[in-house]
Write a structure and sequence with these properties.
alpha/beta, 8-stranded parallel beta sheet, two-stranded antiparallel ribbon, 17 helices, 10 strands, about 50% helix, binds coproporphyrinogen III
Length: about 350
């Protein structure tokens, strides 16, 4: 008898196996839209205390699974643990977002103390071990990192504002960025390997600021480093790990990315034309996305319509249901429940 498995839908989808319905999780699923998160966040005192306390990080990682029974948990951490671990101090001030010390290019690009790096990030790995122990084996655990470019923009602009003005100037001569991209590539691959060794089943790379890079530099700054990270992970572990690449705002480069034949599922943002991409890209490539976080807030008939539109693809290609970017703090819980209901009925 042919049995379609109802367990580990994320991992199964990413490894080419059949599932009974699309896997469901949401970017930033542990966060401020959940009252239980706000409570633990207050207990922790600061965002960094929450990230670097394995018990509390485990607790907030599991909260959205308890409430919504998503198919996967994503470890509670941040992409900016990397600059912090290689010597550029990062602070989170309430309602200000991250603020980084000035970037000391030479010192950072020569970073070599990988034991200190592992030690600094050990609470993240401990949280992964604890989460894996407490998470039902039918659920997958996602480890993650930012990409070299996206982390570099925060380091160069010190996290300030959203104009990325210094990063844009640096792009005038992209070769000057290479030493920074290279050290970040090494650090990110190491962080991902450590997460897999601790128990992560799947990894996601967040390239939230990919679209700032002009087309002619995307191989150099985005896709070559992605390829390098994939090969470093493979070399270190002796096997590949299912990887989702979320390149926000660059779906116009996805055809090119597929031609490079990198073994990655593609995260798709809400401004991309999902159905056009479906026409344009090979049918075996896994898509993840792309409900608008704003439509999720608005709810109503637009929400139902957009969910159904995404679900129509699922019959014809491997598909992971997600948002097109992180869930926003003002999102009503009832609207998230509606997503769960419709995706489970697919
Ligand atoms: O998805 C999850 O639930 C796991 C946790 C997670 C966080 N950040 C927790 C967080 C993940 C996967 C991230 C990724 C992240 N962090 C990205 C890539 C995704 C994206 O949104 O584009 C980026 C760019 C960052 C950097 C970052 N962290 C910023 C710019 C900010 C401040 C803006 C904001 O959203 O408040 C953060 C803080 C942050 N990271 C919060 C959370 C829950 C909010 C801080 C708080 O609770 O006090």
């Amino acid at each position: 008898m042919f049995i379609i498995d109802m367990q580990n839908r994320l991992l199964k989808t990413l490894t080419g196996k059949s599932v009974d319905r699309p896997a469901l999780w949401m970017m930033r699923q542990a966060g401020r839209y959940l009252p239980e998160y706000l409570k633990t966040r207050q207990e922790a005192g600061s965002f960094w205390n929450l990230c670097f306390n394995p018990d509390l990080a485990t607790e907030v990682t599991l909260q959205p699974i308890r409430r919504f029974d998503y198919d996967a948990a994503i470890i509670f951490s941040d992409i900016l643990v990397i600059p912090q671990a290689i010597g550029q101090k990062v602070e989170f001030q309430p309602n200000h977002g991250p603020i980084l010390d000035a970037l000391q290019w030479d010192q950072i690009c020569q970073f070599q103390d990988w034991q200190k790096f592992d030690q600094g990030l050990s609470p993240v790995y401990q949280a992964i071990r604890q989460t894996r122990q407490q998470l039902n084996t039918s659920k997958d655990l996602i480890g993650f990192a930012g990409t070299p470019w996206t982390i570099a923009t925060y380091m160069i602009d010190q996290g300030k504002g959203h104009d990325h003005s210094k990063s844009r100037v640096a792009l005038n001569d992209p070769t000057t960025l290479i030493p920074l991209i290279e050290i970040l590539t090494t650090a990110i691959a190491r962080h991902l390997v450590n997460q897999v060794k601790a128990g992560a089943d799947v990894i996601q790379l967040f390239d939230s600021w990919a679209s700032i890079v002009p087309h002619q530099h995307r191989d150099l700054l985005l896709f070559n480093p992605l390829e390098k990270i994939i090969s470093l992970i493979h070399a270190e572990l002796g096997h590949s790990v299912p990887l989702i690449y979320f390149g926000r705002g660059i779906s116009d480069s996805y055809k090119h990315l597929c031609q490079r034949n990198l073994p990655a599922a593609l995260g798709i943002d809400q401004n991309a034309d999902l159905h056009q991409l479906h026409q344009d890209l090979p049918s075996n490539v896994v898509f993840q996305g792309n409900l608008s976080p704003q439509v999720l807030i608005d709810g109503g008939s637009a929400l139902d319509r957009d969910i159904e539109s995404i679900l129509t693809l699922y019959r014809n290609r491997p598909m992971i249901f997600n948002l097109g970017h992180g869930i926003l703090p003002q999102t009503p819980i009832a609207h998230v429940e509606r997503v769960c209901e419709l995706v489970r009925a697919a």
